[in-house]
Amino acid sequence: xxxxxxxxxxxxxxxALSLAYLLGFEPLGxxxxxxxxxxxxxxxxxxxxxxxxxxxxxxxxxxxxxxGLYWLYISVHVVSGAPKILAVLLILALSVYLSLFYSLFGxxxxxxxxxxxxxxxxxLLFAPSLWTVLEVFRGHFLTGFPWFSLGYMxxxxxxxxxxxxxxxxxxxxxxxxxxxxxxLIFLKRRILGSSIxxxxxxxxxxxxSINWTIKSNDSPYSVALVQGNIEQDKKWLRSEFENTLMLxxxxxxxxxxxxxxxxxxxxxxxxxxxxxxxxxxxxxxxIEKDIKMLILGINTQNQNGQIFNSMISLGxxxxxxxxxxxxxxxxxxxxxxxxxxxxxAMNLPSRDISEGKRQQKPFKLGNxxxxxxxxxxxxxxxxxxxxxxxxxxxxxxxNNAWFGKSTASAQHLQMSxxxxxxxxxxxxxxxxTGISAIIGPKGKINATSRPxxxxxxxxxxxxxxxxxxxMLLGDIFSLLLSIFLMTLGVIIxxxxxxx
Length: 499
Description:
- The chain is α/β, with parallel strands linked by helices and 499 residues long.
- It has helices spanning 7-23, 31-47, 50-68, 71-79, 84-116, 119-140, 163-186, 190-208, 232-235, 238-250, 276-289, 337-345, 408-423, 469-473, 476-498; strands spanning 214-215, 221-227, 260-262, 268-271, 293-301, 307-315, 320-322, 363-365, 368-374, 393-398, 426-431, 437-439, 445-448, 455-461, 464-465.
- It has 2 domains: 2-211 and 475-498, no CATH class; 216-464, Carbon-nitrogen hydrolase (Nitrilase/N-carbamoyl-D-aminoacid amidohydrolase, 4-Layer Sandwich), CATH 3.60.110.10.
- The strands form 3 sheets. Strands 2, 3, 4, 5, 6, 7 and 14 form a 7-stranded mixed beta sheet that branches.
């Protein structure tokens, strides 16, 4: 009956499945529903021809991103002031592009399944590995965009214990295999499906008991994360500038003796060179209050006039980091000169932020080494590998005010937690409007803020020692494992057909 699905029914099915898949992510976090949506997707793939499977998976991806990334409309139109039609077209274009990866999965999976003609091989070897390969490519191709990768659904579950080995993409593979096992039980292959589920659960709990990194013998460090809660449409107003400076300066009150204070991305809406007197004043305040280091976001400019989205530190040791992984159509515009001229005529943002050098040093505070990242850089696990194993803790500063009061902040935090799990390090995350958090080495949130309100989060963290396998192998492990499993499936399938 499924193979006879018409266009309208395929469309409705894809909408329902994309909504169910979204329910697995924060802020709702109904992971079981997310798992089951993938099981149903695989079931459709088993019973459709190549063309219909490609169409179903394309529509699934299209509606997933159109609905899940609705907050881009807030950023592009409401905050930036671009015409409504431009905001809608941008979301549609991005959704179409990302949907191609899902469509490719549907087409290739059906091709392999029809060649092998074995549901167990297709579901346990082809589906998880092919899904993972395409996620890896989606996360790296062009600038990469791993939003809604399946593994992020499990950043709060025991399956995330696979992340220190192969990162979020290995978690995606294990999650897809879990969905396949659930489907096998439904297809009356209860022994095989139940066995795979039991193996996954057992191995996940065993891995969760392993401490890949350990706390150093140092005393804990104290930290304060400041969430300024300044709305984006007010952030760059001249009338609000002095208020912003006073707000952040006042956040140091009551933080006497704190080792580390962190302000969010572009906390000071200015070039560093233009507020040097203010920074000098902060240095004096830090000495009086015995605050060892203040990390903050600010724009910097080099001698050639290039502007960087930067993270700097004040205090006993001076550090600077310039953002390396920029947001396309947010921080730079890969468009022809004619389009850029039109954008300028329409009074739309069109000036590019410059890209920081690939090789930059971790921040230093005594024996402590910190791996810096700005905004959505922390959704790319491989980007942070440059700072390991020498870094002992992760620092992220973010400004999600661009997306208003939307689900973007909760989704972003869910992805950030995976970075702590992959590295076995604490993650200290300071955001403008939320959600700020102190995250432990296994992804547990030790302290957090309420979104969309001013707050100062105080807590402790430890310098972590040791290496996870992911630090050494990165995403290449998940990619090679996926290719191996697909090859194994083909070999087993061909041998089975010959016999």
